[in-house]
Design goal:
The protein is α+β, with helices and mostly antiparallel strands and 416 residues long. The chain folds into 2 domains: 303 residues, Up-down Bundle (Outer membrane efflux proteins (OEP)), CATH 1.20.1600; 62 residues. Helices cover 70% and strands 10% of the residues. The protein has a 4-stranded antiparallel sheet, with no helix packed on it. Strands 1-4 form a two-stranded parallel sheet.
């Protein structure tokens, strides 16, 4: 009996404990690649989830649009308190409204068009979220590359400073040269501090886009900014943008809905017919049946206002669709020009100026350590390399950002 009591208590205690969450649901990502960031963003981004529920709510309106009118019923009892010896008079009436003019079909057409609009708007929100995630991810990579470059420059300068301090102690160089080297170190320390701040800001933005609940606060970003040449065909990208942009397709669906609303407004101008069946028991205890029909007499209100409104709305939607198409092609043009500019800049920096700046820095540093050039020459070579390398990193970041912008402007990847 004691063992059974203990087992029962343990079982009851287990029921009181909160249900354990799955291990996978409790874990938050600490190392994030671009593919993982995009996958999590599609699943966890709050704006995207809100838009998904909006689509579900819009689709539910199709149910309402397809429902037929409810039948009506009425009952009356009369001749209460009559002084004569008569029965009460009872009347029961049942009616069913019959919609004319195809109202139900027109309502369904309008509701289904609204669902298509909401679906394309969801796709457009997804497009924007993916672009924001890619852009934030690239910003973090650029900041990390900038930090690595600044730390590399600091190590080089520290090594030179160590050697020159030894020479200054021996009296081979003046303390002024050592001081100038130490002052130059501030520029590299500032680069490193700015890069750390940029990493922090970029991670905050990336975590916000991807979904804060799925990403650890101290997560790391893994990836590279390796240059990859992508073919750009302006006419082909125009065609793809006009065919695939979700916001443009949403504008087309909105145009269909506007026309469906015009048809619905015209259908609502038709008279509905309500046949009625009546049962009556008279005061003489006679039972009778009757039939009637109810029809609204539309003399003043013939739905003129709604018809005019829907026509104006159709004109507005047509103009809005044209504006969206113009904006889409404009975004494609802007992104293409940025891609071409940054690609040319990367090629020139990578193949010409960066190797020369690095070679000049190494040569001047080698000569300076042996007293062959002045301190000013050494510091100038360091500054030139720093500026060229930073420009190369920024150009890589701008190039990938422009590619992602072009991908968003087209509505998806265009590479074969």
């Amino acid at each position: 009996m004691g063992v059974k009591s203990v087992a029962a208590c343990v079982a009851f205690g287990c029921l009181l404990l909160p249900a354990a969450k799955p291990a996978q649901a409790q874990e938050r990502l600490r190392v994030l690649s671009l593919e993982e960031a995009l996958s999590v963003a599609l699943r966890e981004n709050p704006t995207l989830r809100a838009k998904t529920f909006e689509l579900q709510a819009t689709r539910a309106q199709e149910i309402t649009a397809g429902v037929r009118p409810n039948p009506t019923a009425s009952y009356t009892a009369e001749k209460f308190g009559s002084s004569s010896q008569t029965f009460l008079e009872h009347t029961a009436t049942v009616g069913q409204t019959i919609e004319t003019g195809g109202k139900r079909r027109r309502r369904l057409d309008s509701a289904r068009a609204a669902t298509r609009v909401a679906g394309y708007e969801l796709d457009d929100t997804r497009r924007q979220v993916l672009f924001q995630a890619k852009k934030s991810f690239t910003d973090v990579l650029v900041a990390q590359a900038t930090l690595g470059l600044a730390e590399q420059n600091l190590r080089t300068l520290d090594e030179v400073e160590r050697i020159q301090r030894f020479r200054a102690e021996r009296g081979d160089i003046s303390e002024l040269e050592l001081t100038r080297i130490q002052v130059q170190r501030f520029a590299f320390e500032r680069d490193a501090a700015d890069a750390r701040q940029a990493i922090t800001v970029g991670k905050i933005a990336l975590r916000s886009v991807v979904g804060a609940s799925a990403i650890a606060e101290d997560f790391e970003v893994v990836g590279d900014l390796a240059f990859g040449d992508v073919p750009v065909n302006r006419e082909e990208l125009y065609r793809l943008a006009l065919a695939r942009r979700p916001d443009l397709r949403a504008a087309d669906a909105a145009r269909d809905k506007a026309r469906a609303d015009i048809n619905l407004a015209r259908a609502n101008a038709w008279w509905d017919v309500t046949p009625q069946v009546e049962y009556k028991r008279t005061d003489a205890n006679e039972q009778t049946f009757g039939f009637g029909i109810s029809v609204p007499i539309r003399i003043f209100d013939r739905n003129q206002g709604e018809i005019a409104r829907t026509r104006a709305e159709a004109e507005r939607v047509d103009a809005q669709r044209e504006a969206v198409a113009t904006q889409a092609l404009s975004e494609v043009d802007t992104a293409i020009s940025t891609v071409l500019l940054q690609r040319e800049r990367i090629t020139v920096l990578r193949d010409t100026y960066l190797p020369k700046a690095e070679r000049a820095r190494q040569t001047v540093e080698f000569a300076y350590r042996r007293g062959g050039v002045s301190l000013l020459d050494f510091l100038d070579a360091q500054r030139t390399y720093r500026e060229t390398a930073l420009e190369h990193v920024r150009a890589l970041g701008n190039y990938w950002g422009a590619l992602y912008q072009l991908e968003a402007a087209v509505g998806g990847s265009w590479e074969k």
